[in-house]
Amino acid sequence: MRIAVIGTGYVGLVAGTCFADSGNDVTCVDIDESKIATLLEGQIPIYEPGLEELVERNAASGRLRFTTDLAAAVKDAQVVFIAVGTPQGEDGSADLNYVLDAARSIGSAITGYTVVVNKSTVPVGTAQKVHAVLSKVAKPGTFDVVSNPEFLKEGAAIDDFLSPDRVVIGSNSERARAIMGELYAPFTRRSNRILFMDPQSAEMTKYAANAMLATRISFMNEIAALCERVGADVDNVRLGMGTDSRIGLSFLFPGPGFGGSCFPKDIRALYSTARENGLDFSILNSVDRVNEQQKQLLLRKALKHFGGNVAGKHFAVWGLAFKPKTDDMRESPSLPLIEGLLGKGATVAAHDPVAHESAKRIFGDRIGYTDTPYGAVEGADALFIVTEWNEFRRPDFDRLKSLMRAPVIFDGRNVFDPERMAERGFTYRAIGRGQQNGDG
Ligand code: NAD
């Protein structure tokens, strides 16, 4: 099938590449000329495990192309995916300008029957809006609009895309459903789960799924806070709860607050949709509020430990991206922590295996970046663990202790065992692990 993907970010580039890998003829389009130039030079503008080889292989075979010329890419395509950003607008709702601009350009470029697919996360009713925009510029009967939300996780995006739990297709057109079913057949051989539904339900499914996951995290963060006050260990509680098959073990880890390009904006957009429809979806408000507070927790713990004053202290931060195996720093909990420390007169040296370039765009030279985790802890008054990269799980503790000015760790990911850390001579503050860790 001939496919165009509009927007070559974390979703568009992965989707386009995976479609090319299953034999389709794919053109990825972006308005960002530097992004396309990078791709044409054979490099990829983001970090995603496995993506570089897959792009290289499919580009070399001629099945995957990159361009800024949207009209040329759309002209002969049977399916056009819109995978542009839907950032948070000023009032909390999703900003649809990028989606509707892309739809306008697509409409003017369509020649024959084309399925236009919203892959971006968009509020209920957007398929109709895209349809209205297309109707103004394209001939009637030359297109159908489909809602096909994406569920991939950064850091595991290729596996998620090639082997999804399910594919959701929202469309009332039999013709469009048949084309989408054919396109996704190679990816659903294991589960055979293509869920066809109406566009509104498909749009809602994506927000409902993200809101549920975010709710689990904020819930566990509240449980963790309570554990600290009553002397319970949230890690025991997590296992005790999660092994109940009605609950399950996923998304029960407390931490320094969730970040990323999706959860924060998606819960706000869903809340906004609810309000527009006369409903006060108050759980979502609480999920967001708890998360904003949680993002200050590591800073609060440090201030408590240092008697309210960290001016002149030097801190190490392990992990900058919002989660492991990505360079994405959007809404990462490392941002408020580092800004907070700098704002209170401390200095920071950070190490992240892949996110230094992204971090430099935000912090510039206001912090130091080290090639190794050990480099960051040299002379540090304390170490913060913000992202749970595997390589942070089993450090050489003696070496850490000898490099640090004081053996103090604030662990936002509960990576280590508190008892063993005490035996090793560390002051160890984690999340929700008994009264001694309370942040007051
Ligand atoms: P991104 O910011 O990484 O990429 C979006 C790209 O679209 C940018 O490169 C931008 O230059 C380009 N663009 C904007 N307008 C354009 C236009 N008119 N023509 C061509 N290109 C244009 O965004 P992302 O993280 O890939 O997310 C895209 C969408 O997918 C969002 O709605 C997001 O909520 C959703 N989503 C993201 C993830 C994720 O993990 N990142 C997962 C599922 C769903």
Please, could you describe this protein's structure?
- This protein has 440 residues and is of the alpha/beta class.
- The protein folds into two domains: 196 residues, NAD(P)-binding Rossmann-like Domain (Rossmann fold), CATH 3.40.50; 211 residues, NAD(P)-binding Rossmann-like Domain (Rossmann fold).
- 43% of the residues lie in helices and 13% in strands.
- It has a six-stranded parallel β-sheet, with helices on both faces. The protein has a six-stranded parallel β-sheet with strand order 11-10-9-12-13-14.
- Strand 13, helix 18 and strand 14 form a beta-alpha-beta unit.
- Helix 9 crosses helix 12.
- The longest helix is centred in the middle third of the chain and has 32 residues.
- The mean pLDDT is 96.
- The site of nicotinamide-adenine-dinucleotide has 27 residues, from helix 1 and helix 5.
